[in-house]
Amino acid sequence: MAGNREFVYRRLHSLLGVIPIGIFVMQHLIVNHYATEGVESFNKAANFMGNLPFRYVLETVIIYLPILFHAIYGLYIAFTAKNNASQYGFFRNWMFLLQRVSGVITLIFITWHVWETRIAAAFGNEVNFQMMQDILSSPFMFGFYVVGIISAIFHFANGLWSFLVSWGITVSPRSQVISTYVTIVIFLALSFVGVTTLLAFV
Predict the structure, then answer these.
(1) Cis omega (within 30 of 0) on the bond before 20?
(2) pTM above 0.70, yes or no
(3) Best label site of 133, 140, 169, 185, fewest CB within 10 Å?
């Protein structure tokens, strides 16, 4: 019974990492990328997202609750997993280890980012270009955001590879090699979007 429950939890954890969390990550990066087109463009996009109908319900059901479960169970996996990258050094073993490390970094980053933006907005501060510009004016915070965003993107892209395997979509070695290259391209493309967005604020 415990084994079956663990199997279901791991499948749910994997699924939520892609749908809806992964989709939200991509959407969030794309919306924020409007900063590269100027202050007005970003503020317009941020205002649109901030005034969606039933926003708080959508955020709770589609974002916060899935992230909460994914984070809690992810920490359990991270601290109970047997990492053997140093012993074997195979590419996938290193990806296994980096997935756990990037997950912890991403959790720290998301918690801080929500505190600086969503919680601040709840106290009357507007989430706009100026807010992000003020946050990223500190070299330390800029570096923190670069590391946090790249960690989140890596965690999503590499997690997508694992999702395809665990859900039986990429079964053959060839399909897994192809999905490796696809997820690397996704990682590089989204990292470019994320970093260029940060540079637009400074």
Answers:
(1) yes
(2) yes
(3) 140
